[in-house]
Amino acid sequence: MKTLLAAAGLGLTLLSVPAFADSSHAPMPQAQAGSTSADMMADGVVRKVAKSRGRITIKHGPLTNLDMPPMTMVFRVRDEAMLDRVKPGDKIRFKAEDIGGALTVTELAPAE
Questions:
Q1: Could you give the angle at the alpha carbon of 99 between the alpha carbons of 35 and 110, nearest 5°?
Q2: What domains does the chain contain, in order, with CATH numbers?
Q3: pLDDT value of residue 15
Q4: Which residues make Cβ contacts (< 8 Å) with residue 64, sequence separation at least 6?
Q5: C-alpha angle with apex 98: 34 to 21, nearest 5 degrees?
Q6: What is the DSSP letter of 85?
Q7: β-strand partners of 60
Q8: pLDDT of 36-93, one tens digit each?
Q9: Distance between terminal CA atoms of the chain?
Q10: Which of the 8 DSSP states describes residue 41?
Q11: Radius of gyration in angstroms for the set of CA atoms belonging to the chain, rounded to a whole number
Q12: Can you tell me the distance from the alpha carbon of 71 to that of 61, in angstroms, rounded to the nearest whole number?
């Protein structure tokens, strides 16, 4: 009888395991699912432009599409011509995406 009760208890425990499974595959919240490109733009300040390397250092606010808090970091740029339009100290709006594992600025505009 003890074996039967233990087996039943184990079975109930195993049935509840999926409730604690990794939620990384959960559906995207509705606010992000319907986001437009303008909604994913973040505010930032250019700290450094490295044209020869195709990189830009930006002190930025939250990057909601990447689930990142505010920080200063180096990004690649999708189009190196973007770097000709900015200089250190410029306030910008930008969109960054994870492209092949590299955080890349895909859109860049002066802040209004």
A1: 60
A2: 36-112 (2.40.50.320)
A3: 47
A4: 32, 35, 39, 40, 42
A5: 70
A6: G
A7: 44, 71
A8: 555 679 999 999 999 999 999 999 999 999 999 999 999 999 999 999 999 999 999 9
A9: 74
A10: -
A11: 22
A12: 7
